[in-house]
Amino acid sequence: MSLVLYEAEGRVAVITLNRPEARNAMSPELSASLGEAFDRFEADEKLWVAILAGNGRVFCAGADLKALSEGRAAGIITAEEGFGRFARRQRDKPVIAAVDRPAVAGGFELVLGCDLVVASADAAFGLPEVKRSLVASEGGVTRLPRRIPANIAMELALTGDTIDVYRAYALGLVNVICEPGRAVAEAKKLAERIAANPPLAVRAIRHCVIDGLETTEAEGFAIAARLSREISQTEDFKEGPRAFVEKRPPVWQGR
Q1: Catalytic annotation, pick one of 129, 155, 192, 230
Q2: Residue 45 annotated to the active site
Q3: Structural domains of the chain in order of their starting residue, each with its CATH number
Q4: Strand ranges (DSSP E) for the chain?
Q5: pLDDT at position 5, please?
Q6: Residue pLDDT, tens place only, 67-86
Q7: Which residue of the set 109, 192, 214, 217 is catalytic?
Q8: Catalytic site residue 129?
Q9: What is the DSSP code string of 174-204?
Q10: pLDDT at 69
Q11: Whole-model pTM?
C-alpha cells in the first residue's frame, strides 16, 4: 500500500497521506514518501497548485510516537525540510490544505505550512504537545502567532486544547468551510481559481506575501518591485494585455 497517494488532474496535484490505520501519524517512511511527492510536484511544470489531504478519520495526528521512542526522529523531521519533509520546505508553488478531520500536533503544523486551508465541519485543530512535555517546534509556536492573535495562539499552545473549524474560520485560519467529506472537492475548486492565473505571477505574489510578513514595509516594497520586474520579462506578461485587447481568454505558458 502506498503511504502517499498522488493524483494529477489538469494543473492540480492532490497529495494524500494514506496511513489511516495509524491516524496518518508521521513515520520516517511516510515522511520520505511525502517529501518525494512534493519533489515530484515541484519538478512538474505542468502542475501549478497542490492539495494536501489525509485519508481516514484523522488528517494527521502528528509524529509516530512509537518511532520517536525507538530513536527514529531523524527520519520524521529533517534538518532542511522539517516535519514530514514539508513543514519547512522551501517551495515556489501554492499548496492548499484539505482538512476533513482533526489536524493536531505535527498534523496542524503541516496545515500551517500550507498557503490556504479548506476544512470541513468535522475538522479540528490543536497543538497538544505541551500535554506530553514537548514543544511544537515545527511551525506551531512560530507560525501560529503570525496567523492569529498572539494571545489566542498562546492559549492553544499552553493548554494543548483543540478548536473546531468554526472558531478556526473566525480567527482567519481557514479560508473555506464545507460539508464533511467535501474538503478535497472544495479545495479543487479553489485550486482551479488559482490555476486560472499565470503561474509565474502566482509564485511571485506568493513570495511577496510570505516575505513581506517577515520584513519591514520598505523591504517588502523592494521585494515586490524586484519580482515585478522579473515578471515583466516573461511571455505571460505580454499575453495578458494581448488577450484583453483581442477579447479572448489568455493562454498562459508559464514562461
Answers
A1: 129
A2: no
A3: 4-195 (3.90.226.10), 199-245 (1.10.12.10)
A4: 4-9, 12-17, 49-54, 77-78, 82-83, 95-99, 103-104, 116-120, 124-126, 162-164, 176-178
A5: 97
A6: 766 767 678 888 889 999 99
A7: 109
A8: yes
A9: -SEEE-TT-HHHHHHHHHHHHHTS-HHHHHH
A10: 67
A11: 0.94
